[in-house]
Amino acid sequence: RQGMAVALFSGLSDDFMGDMLRHTLDASGVDYSPSTRAPLPTTLAFVRLVGGQARYTFYDENSAGRMLTENDLPTLGDDVSAVLFGCISLIAEPCGSVYEALMVREAPRRVMFLDPNIREIFIPDRQKHLARMRRMITLADIVKLSDEDLAWFAEPGEEHEVIGRWLALGPKLIVVTRGADGADAWTADFHLHVPAIRVAVADTVGAGDTVNAGILASLSQAGLLEKEKLVTLSREQVRQAVQLGMRAAAVTVSRPGANPPWDHEL
């Protein structure tokens, strides 16, 4: 929707809800040919909005999206510049291990973007998931997480000290979002704050994903979505990337249905 060529690797059911997902992906210009198609059920996500904030319940046992294997991993062409990983797909097994294997395989040659998007209620083994997140942080070039996500890690020290340690592990850019209080971004060379855009909030579902899309779109449009170029990002380049993410997320939360904006809406 932001004018980038995007593809999805997941497991899609051959049931009618899988058909609905494919139709929606088609309508948004997403190539889902890397995804598998399986005679398994579609994951169901139920969302209850309380004061504009989302509470979730997922039904994911033996689903098409969950039951991936490493044999399903796609071959990525030279036109793929970045890969985004995140959320509950990294919790459930076997798909969590498959996505981690994909990151290990592709990290040496493409930009890796990690959004931990912690959903604590769905994490059966905190230590196991914490270990996975720490491994993936060391492989990531960009990490975006909310202040609540960061608190879940329970790292010792002040926030800037935690971010500094993470940057030393490998990431070139770390962004922490704070809802109505905007977002902060760090590289090895600087820290900056980007204010939020004030809107009437209708539905927060998808806000973080929209920030991810804006950051990736901005960096791609500027020709910066390459591992070596992320090392030398300027303050203004980072500001523009986070600002696009925040502008896009402001549109998403202003209307119901996790419906992120098209580029012409920005």
Any chance you could write out the topology, listing elements then pairs?
Blueprint: E1 6-7, E2 11-13, H1 16-27, E3 30-31, E4 36-38, E5 44-50, E6 53-59, E7 82-86, H2 95-106, E8 111-115, H3 126-139, E9 142-146, H4 147-153, H5 159-169, E10 173-177, E11 183-186, E12 191-194, H6 207-221, H7 227-230, H8 235-253
Parallel strand pairs: 1-3, 2-4, 7-8, 8-9, 9-10
Antiparallel strand pairs: 5-6, 10-11, 11-12
Helix pairs in contact: 6-8
Protein architecture, described:
The chain is an alpha/beta fold and 266 residues long. The strands form four sheets. It has a six-stranded mixed sheet with strand order 7-8-9-10-11-12, sandwiched between helices. The longest helix is centred in the last third of the chain and has 19 residues, at 235-253. The chain contains eight helices and twelve strands. The termini are close together. It has a single domain (6-265), classed as Ribokinase (UDP-N-acetylmuramoyl-L-alanine:D-glutamate ligase, 3-Layer(aba) Sandwich). The relative contact order is 0.12. A hairpin with a 4-residue loop joins strand 11 (183-186) and strand 12. Helix 6 runs antiparallel to helix 8 (235-253). Helix content is 35%, strand content 20%.
